[in-house]
Structures are given as structure tokens and as C-alpha cells.
Structure prediction request, 747 residues.
Amino acid sequence: MPEQAVRPTPDQLEAFGHEMDAIRAAVVADLGQRDLDYINRVILAQRSLELAGRGLLEFGLIPPAWLAGTAALSLSKILDNMEIGHNVMHGQYDWTGDPRLDGRRFEWDTACPGEHWRHSHNYMHHTFTNIVGKDRDIGYGILRMSDEEPWRPYYLGNLLWAGLLAVFFQYGVALHDLESERIVSGEVSLAEKRGMIGAIWGKVRRQTLKDYVLFPLLSGPSFPLVLAGNLTANLTRNLWAFTIIFCGHFPDGTEQFSEQEAENETRAEWYYRQLLGSANLTGGRAFHVLAGNLSHQIEHHLFPDLPAHRYAEISREVRATCERYGIPYNTGPLAKQFGSVVRKIFSLGLPPRGARSTGSALPAQTQPAALEAVA
Amino acid sequence: MVIRTLAEAQSPRRIGRRLLRSGLLEALAYPHGVDRYTELIRPLMLARDVRAEVVGVRLQTPKSVTLTLRPNANWEGFRAGQFVGLSANVAGVRVSRPYSLAGSEHATDGTLEMTVSTHPMGRLSRHLREHVRAGLVVDLTQAQGEFVLPDRRPEGVLLISGGSGITPVMAMLRTLCDEREVPKIGFLNYARSPLTALYEGELRHLESAHPGLRVARGFTRSTGGQITGRLCREHLSAVIDQHADPAIFACGPPALVESVRTICASEGLAEPAIETFSGPVLSIDTENARGVVRFASSGLEAPNTGLPLLEQAEDAGLTPAYGCRMGICNSCSCLKSTGTVRNVISGAVSTADEEQIRICVSAPVGDVVLDI
Prediction:
């Protein structure tokens, strides 16, 4: 996707911001029973799949039961992680007053403690989206996902580290808020993180006990099969979540920003940075639900606290508004977007060679104050 | 709960409930908890929370709805005069309100009764009147409140009520009538008109069935009652003997309960137990507020404005969880590390360290450190 050659003027950007505000206000005014019914249906599906999956796996000695059980449990974990967990914890359903949907208290079926996720994701990632040096989702402290990151021989293994992160993604996410790269570099002391380590261990321990000890033991002779089934379900969710999440901010055409560029942003400029830094995925309804509607990464980053199932409905209007203002709207099928991410991981792992293009160059002129008028 | 026989102790129901609360099941159901699975199969099957099914709906008057509820096994019973917090879904949003229980403590069918009066701006009351049907499942708190009959029943009881305040004293009346221990009961009630008068048929029936019971009704906006106008000394003689000294229970709008207090004081009668529903009279003193409020977990601090801590936290930019904002539902409960707070409804002052308080009705007195 070509770099955006011409950017909106400050006035145009402010007008764009007002239009985004209006889209948001319209959704907020419309929230009601329909949204509550939707999320309750998704939760019913997830819990049912979980009961069915775990039930079937207890009879894992029978191959069809193992396959069906593992598939059901995988779907359950995917739904719990993405359409339910991620979205509820954003506070998307806080307005219902239902304590079971309280974003501040919700806990999800994965190794990462909800409290840490709320901090590292809701606050850090969504506020400092794609700002190099501040958004730690750029590389998670173990990958090179930015030209601005100085290259080190360690990054020759970029694809390998990414692969390992994908396989063990739930633990990668669990350790994310620990900022281990900053502990290693000495910026942050281990003592400061002691409480956090305790909380992570508590969550990991209970998830491990449930998935890898208790349910297998309960099945008696099917122990190894239940264990294998649960490992497979967790792995499936890890790989799927990694894929969808990495398509959010890294496909070709997504942009990154420096701290100065993002200083003293107006609301409209914040919308703009969220847009330029995010990419969507095209697909059917089932795909969007399984992706937790993170396939609408653009709409999610514009409006993180609107119920995610609304993103598909407003995406047409958001895209049309972007076109009117000449703002790029990055979208494409999963294979294409993820393909470009894999290529990026590979090429950023190689030592840079002069003016070599990696497809994620920072735009030359990004200060909104210094924009040229549209010719 | 008293275990009467061994058989009861090992009843399937009891074993089932112990299983529901077991550590093993909690570990298997982590992190959502057992309730989130059992409620998909049977909405009332929960480990600890109280839920109830509406089993009867009666429209006594155009502006009220009387519900009969069957609570689940976690219901711990109630004393006549107490209330529960009822939560239900109104157009996608969970709304919670307190309602007094109107039934007798000695009801044997395991049901509860409450009569909800509709308010022009009331979200839950109007929703319940228009939409509630048998089969609806609602959340309940356990029974709460200090407005109760003494364990040792008195020689005489006088129950005074106005408007929707009839509900807790109906519970008291029905309980006393079931017990047949208190020889003299007086029941004074004020409604707007015969059309809005609740429990008319039952009151007449109870009166004819219980020789010691005298009922008098007055209508404030229409004629035809046994007593006319608003509560006054003379009305008391319609239901109690001249030199009687009954225990007095009054529930109704602030004006009514004030009259009761005044008349009791001037007549030398016992101090009445009072319950009032309309927005609690909050005693908030913002002028003499002093000290500093510290929100320890957030690292924020602000001078004490005298307002309840929930509002002070919101003013400081925090968003603590809350529910009814009137001290009932416990959603806003937070840990007070140190300091003194005053309950703005009851006036009670507490200085204990590491104390759970309801921040919507707790105002700081001097320095307070809150663990949010």
C-alpha cells in the first residue's frame, strides 16, 4: 500500500474528529437490550462449548470424542479470550450494570491476570498505540517490529522468536506487563515487580491445575488424552489469537509514530493516529465473532469501549468518512494481511541495509502542524 | 439452620449444595465460578447468591403490582418489617431497588410477597408493573433492616402507615395474626383514595378474624374513610384504648413519620420505630469539612469536601463501582484503611482501621485513607 502522500489539513482533521465523535454518540445513544442479548448469547455459546468440550474429552479414549471435545474446547477458549474477555474488560458492557459483565472485575480463561491486561492493554496500548518506545505491543520486548528499533544479532531469530511467542502466546501475554526486557536492561528492578510476579504465578498456577491436572485426573484412564486435548485447545487459541492480534497493527501500510509526533494531540489527531496505526481484516460474520471483532481493528481503536459487535455496523460509515477526507483505510483478507506481517517479521530480523524498504517506513512528514493543503 | 434429623442432614439437596460450594468444583470452574455454569442449566441454581422466581402477579390498584416470589435455597429468611434489594433487567440495564417484604414470617409455602408502588419517574417500578410475568427471575439480597418486631412480643402493637409504607407493617400484622400472641393490635393507614388503598380486603378479613385487631383507614385526597384528614392525636383512639402504651411502628412519607414522632412525644407514648422510603434525608456537612482524603491505591489525594466518599472519589477522577447510591446494595463497598467516617443516613460514626464501608453513604470526618 503506497505511503499517504497528502494528509488532511489541521481544520480538515478537526472536522473529521467531529464526525467520528458523532458516530460514537449515535451508538452510545442506541445501546440497549439488543447488545445485552448479543453478549449473553455469545457467553451462552462459550459456556456450552466449554461444558461439551470438557465433557467429551473425559471420554477421550474414543477418537471422535477427543476430536470433537478438543474442537469445542478450542472454540470455547477463543470466544472467552476474544469476543467476550477482551471486549468485556474494555468496559464495553459496563453500562449494563450487570456484575458479571463488569470490565473491572472480569477474569478470563487464560494465563494472564485480568488486572495486568487492563493496565497493559486498555491503558498502555490503547493510549500510546504504535508510538515507538511507548507502545510495548510493538514487538512485546522480544521481537523487532520497527525500523526505529536498533538491530542486534539476536534479531536474526525474529521469525523463530515470533513462532515461539505464537505457540506460547498465553504465557507471553501473561508476562507482558512484567516488562522483562526492562528488568534485564536494568531500567526496572525485580523488587518493584515482586507483587506482579505473585499475581501472575497465582493465575498460571490455577489455570495449570485446572487444564493439566484436575480435568485429566478426573477422567481416570483417559488422563493423557485429556491432557493432550487441553494442550491442543490452548495451543489453538494461542495461534489464533496471535494471528489476529498481529494483523492489527503490522500489515503493510500501517504506520508508527515517534513520541514527539504524538505529543499534545487533539482528540482528532488521536483518532488519526489510531486509524493510521491499525488494519482491518475482511471476512464473514462467523470470522468476525471468532476474531472478537478485532478484525475491525480500526473501529476498535477509534472506539475501544463500544460493544465490539457494533463495529461491523459502523464500519461502512467510518470507511466512507475516511474516503471523503482522503484518509487511508487499511483492510484486506487474512492471508494477505498476515502474509505481509510474516514478511515484515522476517525482513526486520535481517540487518538493515541503507535505504532498504521494509514496508513500514515512518512517513517523511508527520507533524500535523506542518501539513500541506490538499492540492 | 438447625439440622433436625440425620436424614435431613444428608438430604440430596444439602449434599448438592455442599458440592456446589466445594473447592474442587470451584477449581474446575475457575475463573468464572460454578454459578456461571449452573445458572445456564437452572437459573436459580447458585452456590451462594439469592435469586427468586416470580410465581404470582396481582394488580391490586392501578398504581401498584404485588409480586409473589419463590427464592432459591440460599435465602436465609427474614423478620417482618425487613426489606430486600431487588435487581432486574430494564431495557438492557440492571436496576436495583429496595422493597419491603409484606408476607408473614410464618408463611409455609416458601414464597415472599412484595408490593411495588409505581412512581412517575420510577424505572424499575414502572417496568415491573407493565412487564412482570410469572417466570421472571430476579436477583435478591438477603433480608436487611432494623425495622422489626422485638423477639419478645409486646402486650400491644400500634402499626401506622402511609402510602407504600403499608408493606412492612402488613408483614408485621400478618405475622402477629398468625402467632395469636399479642392481644391488642391497632392498624392505622393513610392512602390517597379508596382506589389506591392496598390490602383492603385482607385487612377487613383479618379484623373480623382477630378480636384484638382494630383497623382504621383514612383517605388524604378523598372522603369515605373511618378517619378524616392527616394523622392527628384523635386518630389514635380509633384503634387503641385510651391508656394503652403499645409498641409503635410507623412507616411512610417523611411528613407522616414526623407527625408520629411529635404525637408520641406529646402524648407520652413509647418512642416509635420508624421506617421511611422517600429519598433518605442525608446529613451532609460541607461547610465544616476538614482533613484530607487519600485514595491509596490510585496515589491520589484531595482535601475533604464533606461529601460521601463515592462522590469525592468521582470528583478526583476515579470510577469506583456503585449500585443504588443509597447505602443498601453494597456494590460500592471499599476498604477504609484508617480514619473516621460518618454514615450520612444513620449518623453512625466509625473509626475502626481496615474496615469495609459503603462509600456512597460514608462521609469522612477528618483524614481518611481509602484503599481504592
